[in-house]
Amino acid sequence: MPKIFVFFMLIVFTLSACGNINARKGETRGMSFCQDMEGRFHFSVFIPPWKHVREYRCDDGDFRNCNQWTPTGRYVFVVSDSPFVSFDSEIITSLTIEETTETASDLVNSLLNDIRYDNEAALDPFTEDEEFYVHKTYEGKTVYDVYWTQTRDFDGKSYQWNRRDAFIETGLGSVYHLEFFSIKTMKKPEFDLLVESFVLGPAPDGAPHCECMDERAVPPEPCF
Question: Most buried of the four, 18, 41, 140, 159, by CB within 10 Å?
């Protein structure tokens, strides 16, 4: 059974305001570690704007007028004090991380086939001769990056989403799938560094700047 971890950035965030970095050389000045709750993996991001909150779904009503919020058991990274409410309406950039025992080549080929048969999707080749980008994490793990676009409708409006799927081989018989959605381009150094700084295990410092808060609790309290 795949293990899924979800991280979201809300619409108030502008990546260009974070400063300049050189992802190709592993430049991480001004960045901090983030890790999942169990310390299975960590990576580097700018803090602020990232922070860690508990995820809820609406079980009675909709995100505009919800009578009952229920925790999903997952958690998200956000960049405002607003609780997570709706993927399509509020978020311009999101990241889902999934661990799977499928091979990276099978996952890449399956995704490429899905893109080819989706009338609302289009592959964004890495170069004229390369459908996807093969590179390494700073730890030396192989990464397969697929860039593409997809049109999605919500509330009577169409949105052109930039997609990025990075498949990282762990060398331990599993692959981590990092799935990005964004209204803005995913070909940015900040995203490159996030992918290439991905490491199994807890952050060296315990990622103290990515503390998880349950913002729907009254008053807000740390996640459990």
Answer: 41
